[in-house]
C-alpha cells in the first residue's frame, strides 16, 4: 500500500509542477520533445505524434484537480503564457480557447458556488421521486439554456419540483444534516 501511495504522490507531483520524476512532462518523445533546450508540447512536433502515457497508468489517466484546473485555465487564458509542462498543455491549452475561457468563467464565479454537503444514503423520498426530479431538472435547464422556454420557466420548475417531492427531500436532507453536524 505504501508503494501505491508513493506512486500517486509522484503522479500528483507532476500535476502540481513539483515532481522529481517528471520535470517537463511524463516521458520525452511521448508527450513532449526537447528542442533547443526547451520542452515542446505541440503534438505536430513530436516524431510519430503524441502518445498519452497517462493512459497506461494504474489510475487509467492522469488525475486532475478540478478547481486547480480552472485556476490554471484562467491564468493561461488571461496571461496568454506558454504552458510550463505537458499537463498544462494536454489538459488545458490543447482543449482550445473556448475551453480556457469557460474555465475562466467558472473560476471567476467560485463565490457563487453552492456546495452540496449531503453525503448520506438516499432518503425515502429520493428513492421514490429522485429519478423523476433529476430528469425534470435536466430537461428544464436544457430547455432554458437552448432558448426553448423563457427564463421564467425556472420559477414554474421550482414550484413543480417542490410539489413533486423536492420539498420533502429538502426536509429529509436538513434533518440528516442536523443529525450529523455535531459528528463532524
Task: Outline the structure in words.
- The chain is 53% helix and 3% strand.
- It is mainly alpha-helical.
- It has two domains: 1-112, no CATH class; 124-182, no CATH class.
- A two-stranded antiparallel sheet has the order 1-2.
- Helix 2 (66-79) crosses helix 4.
- The two termini are 27 Å apart.
- It comes from Parageobacillus thermantarcticus.
- This is Putative aldouronate transport system substrate-binding protein.
How would the blueprint of this fold be written?
Layout: H1 2-15, E1 33-35, E2 38-40, H2 66-79, H3 86-91, H4 97-108, H5 124-145, H6 153-181
Antiparallel strand pairs: 1-2
Give me some keywords for this one:
2 domains, two-stranded antiparallel sheet, 3% strand, 6 helices, elongated, mainly alpha
- Spatial strand order of the main sheet: 1-2
- Can you give the helix content as a percent range? 40-55%
Largest sheet: 2 strands, antiparallel
- What are the secondary-structure elements, in order, as H or E? HEEHHHHH
N→C terminal distance: 27 Å
State the assembly state of the protein chains: single chain
Give the percentage of residues in beta strands: under 5%
**Low-confidence stretches at least 5 residues in length (pLDDT < 50)?**
none
Number of strands: 2
Average residue pLDDT:
87
* Number of helical regions: 6
What spatial form do the alpha-carbon principal axes imply?
Answer: elongated
Structural class: mainly alpha
Tell me the radius of gyration. Answer: 22 Å
**Total number of domains:** 2
Amino acid at each position: 500500500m505504501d508503494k501505491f501511495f508513493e506512486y500517486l504522490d509522484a503522479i500528483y507531483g507532476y500535476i502540481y509542477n513539483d515532481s522529481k520524476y517528471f520535470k517537463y512532462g511524463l516521458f520525452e518523445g511521448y508527450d513532449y520533445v526537447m528542442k533547443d533546450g526547451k520542452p515542446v508540447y505541440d503534438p505536430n512536433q513530436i516524431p510519430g505524434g503524441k502518445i498519452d502515457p497517462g493512459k497506461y497508468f494504474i489510475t487509467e489517466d492522469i488525475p486532475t484537480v478540478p478547481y486547480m484546473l480552472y485556476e490554471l485555465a484562467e491564468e493561461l487564458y488571461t496571461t496568454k503564457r506558454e504552458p510550463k509542462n505537458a499537463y498544462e498543455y494536454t489538459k488545458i491549452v490543447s482543449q482550445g480557447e473556448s475551453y480556457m475561457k469557460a474555465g475562466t468563467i467558472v473560476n471567476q464565479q467560485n463565490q457563487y458556488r453552492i456546495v452540496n454537503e449531503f453525503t448520506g444514503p438516499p432518503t425515502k423520498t429520493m428513492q421514490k421521486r429522485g429519478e423523476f426530479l433529476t430528469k425534470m431538472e435536466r430537461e428544464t435547464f436544457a430547455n432554458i439554456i437552448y432558448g426553448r422556454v423563457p427564463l421564467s420557466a425556472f420559477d414554474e420548475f421550482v414550484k413543480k419540483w417542490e410539489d413533486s417531492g423536492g420539498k420533502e427531500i429538502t426536509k429529509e436532507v436538513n434533518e440528516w444534516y442536523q443529525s450529523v453536524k455535531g459528528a463532524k
